[in-house]
Amino acid sequence: MRLSQFAATLLLSSIAFLPVHAYAADEADPVVATVGGVEILASELAMAEGDLDPQFARLPDEQRRVAALAAVIDIKTLARKAEAEKLDQTEEFKKLMAFQRDRALHNAIFKSTVVDPVSDADIKARFDKEVAATPPEEEVSARHILLKTEDEAKAVIAELDGGKDFAELAKEKSTGPSAAQGGDLGYFTKGRMVPEFEAVAFELKAGEYAKEPVQTQFGWHVIKLEDRRAAAAPAFEEVADQVRQVVMRERYGELIKAAREEIAIEVLDPDLKAAYEALNPQQ
Predict the structure, then answer these.
(1) 184: burial class by Cβ within 10 Å (0-12, 13-18, 19+)?
(2) What is the pLDDT of residues 134-180, one digit of tens each?
(3) How many Cβ atoms from other residues are within 10 Å of residue 40's Cβ?
(4) Are 18 and 8 within 8 A, CB to CB?
(5) DSSP state of 112
(6) What angle do CA 7, 10, 12 make, to 5 degrees?
(7) How far apart are CA 211 and CA 160, in angstroms?
(8) Residue 54 burial (CB < 10 Å; 0-12/13-18/19+)?
(9) Quick check: pTM over 0.70?
(10) Handedness of CA 105, 110, 112, 113 (dihedral sign)
C-alpha cells in the first residue's frame, strides 16, 4: 500500500525550510522525530521513503526524506487517535494484524531464502544452461518494394527480370518507409513480420527475389532475400534481470513445495477445495 501521496504533497512547497533533526539515541538507528512521545526511527523513515509514490523519485534526496517524514508523521498521528478510540482492539483489526504478520514473515523468508542467496554466478550459470539447451533460431535479411497494386508489383518484377538493380528500384518506386534504404529491412526472425510476407521470405534462397507479388494488409510486396543465418543469442547483460526473475521464481517454487509437504493443509469449502486441488495436484 502506498504511503499517503496527499500528505506528502502538502509539504512540498515548504520542504526547503523544514530541517530534519536526529536524536542519536542509537547511532545505528537514530530517532528522527517523535509523535505523541512515540519515536520515529531512521529505519522507519527509510522504509517510508521506499514506499513513496514514484513521482517523488524525481525530488532531491533531502526533499524526498522530508516527504517520507510527513507521511510517517501523519500515519503515526492517526494511529494514536485510532488507539485512543480502541480501534486496535476490534476483532477486524486483530485479524488484519494477524494476516499482515504472516505476510511480513512470508516476505522475510522469501528474501532470506530466495532473493539474497541468488548470486551473479547463479544467474550466469542459468543463462548458459538456457543458451546451451536452446536450438539456434534462423533469421533472414531481406529487402522489399511496396506498391499499391498487383499490376505495379508485376511490372517491377519484370524490370528485375530485365536486370534492374533491386535497391535502386526500391528507392525509386517503393511506397514503404524503407524505400530510402533501398527497401532494406535488416535481419528478422519468424514472427516479426506479417505471416504472408515471412512465409515467402523464409522460402527464398539468398540473392533470390520472389517471382510473384505478395499481398499483405500494407499493399503488394516484391521481396528479395539477402542472407540467412543462425540468430545470435542475446547478450547476458541484456537479459540478466529477466534471468534473475526466472531463478527466483524457480527457487520460490521449490521453497513453497517443500514447506507445503511439512505442514497439514485442509481446504474446507468444497468449491475452493476442488479449485485449489486442480491448481495444486500434488497436494
Answers:
(1) middle
(2) 888 999 999 999 999 999 999 999 999 999 999 999 999 999 999 99
(3) 18
(4) no
(5) I
(6) 115
(7) 9
(8) exposed
(9) no
(10) positive
Distance of alpha carbon 115 from alpha carbon 109, whole angstroms: 9
Q: Which three three-digit cell numbers place residue 72? A: 510517517
HEC secondary structure over 31-45: EEEEECCEEEEHHHH
Residue type, 232: A
Nearest-10 crossing angle of helices 236-261, 91-110: 120
User: H helices of the chain, where?
Assistant: 5-10, 42-50, 61-84, 91-110, 120-133, 150-161, 166-173, 195-201, 236-261, 270-279
Q: Name the residue type at position 261.
A: E
Q: What is the pLDDT of residues 246-260, one digit of tens each?
A: 999 999 999 999 999
CB count in 10 Å sphere of residue 50: 9
First to last CA, the chain: 32
Q: Considering Cα of 178, then 182, then 188, then 193, what sign does the dihedral take?
A: positive
29/207 Cα distance (integer angstroms): 70
- The answer to whether the CB of 68 falls within 8 A of the CB of 15 is no
Q: How far is it, in rounded angstroms, from Cα 127 to Cα 237?
A: 10
